């Protein structure tokens, strides 16, 4: 009897990811629905600082040209901080540049974050991040410019490859420490943070929506493909059209 790989025969998803990211590909191999195959290209990121992120973004267009060669059905720029760095106007310019090279829909993690919070009715958010304060300040400004009030921020003060080493138990504790009564939802930021493993537990414990970077990016990918999100066990967002 011949075996059939459930990743073939459906949509090809191109991922543009920071070079240090060792989390998003295992996350999607683990929990993404059948009929999606993921093909990643990396952009050099040495430190998760404003200057380091700007340098990374300068390489995104070349990465898009590479990923275009697999004829993707959708491409995701799967970096939260790199895509909120220059605000929404900067993100639009970046997405336009990527679309012109890949010839298909392009989604970005920070735009997915905003769309997800709005869809879930989150107007006051608690923010949990692995970042340095300078990056947290930029994320707060990005969210508030889009009409989402940030009522609490907790960061780990990490950069670069240190982020991927944070164990899920520490992510859970960070998220719980960020939550406050005034927040009607929580966002756990960064595609290299192992938040997807704890999102369901966090929603049960906090009794409010919890959105993570990899969860929101996959949700945006599915919607760009015209597929209704229906992934159980990873937070309410992935069951929300």
The CATH topology annotation of the largest domain reads as Rossmann fold
Order of helices and strands: EHEHHEHHEHEHEHEHEH
* Mean pLDDT value: 97
| Fraction of residues in β-strands | 15-25%
Strand order of the largest sheet: 2-1-3-4
**Which outline best applies?**
globular
**Helix content class:** 40-55%
Q: Give the CATH class of the largest domain.
A: Alpha Beta
Number of strands: 8
Radius of gyration, rounded?
17 Å
Helical stretch count? 10
Please tell me the CATH architecture of the largest domain by its name.
Answer: 3-Layer(aba) Sandwich
Can you describe what's shown?
With 241 residues, the protein is an alpha/beta fold. 46% of the residues are buried. The strands form two sheets. Strands 2-1-3-4 form a four-stranded parallel β-sheet, with helices on both faces. The protein has a four-stranded parallel β-sheet with strand order 6-5-7-8, sandwiched between helices. The mean pLDDT is 97. The chain has helices at 24-31, 50-58, 60-67, 80-84, 87-102, 109-119, 133-145, 168-178, 199-206, 213-224; strands spanning 11-18, 36-43, 74-77, 106-108, 124-129, 149-155, 185-188, 210-212. Helix content is 42%, strand content 18%.
């Amino acid at each position: 009897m011949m075996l059939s790989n459930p990743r073939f025969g459906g949509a090809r998803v191109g991922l543009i990811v920071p070079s240090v990211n060792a989390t998003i590909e295992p996350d999607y191999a683990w929990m993404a629905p059948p009929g999606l195959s993921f093909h990643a290209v990396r952009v050099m990121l040495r430190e998760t600082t404003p200057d380091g992120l700007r340098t990374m973004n300068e390489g995104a267009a070349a990465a898009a040209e590479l990923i275009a060669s697999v004829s993707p059905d959708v491409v995701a720029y799967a970096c939260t901080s790199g895509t909120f760095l220059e605000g929404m106007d900067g993100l639009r310019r970046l997405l336009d540049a990527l679309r012109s090279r890949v010839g298909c829909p392009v989604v970005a993690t920070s735009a997915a974050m905003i769309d997800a919070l709005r869809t879930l009715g989150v107007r006051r958010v608690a923010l949990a991040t692995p970042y340095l304060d300078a990056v947290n300040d930029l994320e707060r400004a990005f969210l508030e410019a889009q009409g989402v009030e940030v009522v609490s921020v907790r960061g780990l003060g990490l950069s670069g490859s240190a982020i991927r080493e944070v164990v899920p138990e520490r992510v859970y504790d960070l998220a719980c420490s960020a939550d406050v009564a005034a927040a009607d939802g929580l966002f756990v930021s960064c595609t290299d943070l192992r938040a997807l493993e704890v999102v369901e537990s966090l929603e049960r414990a906090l009794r409010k929506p919890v959105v993570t970077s990899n969860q929101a990016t996959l949700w945006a990918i599915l919607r760009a493909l015209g597929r209704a999100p229906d992934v159980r066990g990873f937070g309410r967002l992935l069951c929300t059209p």
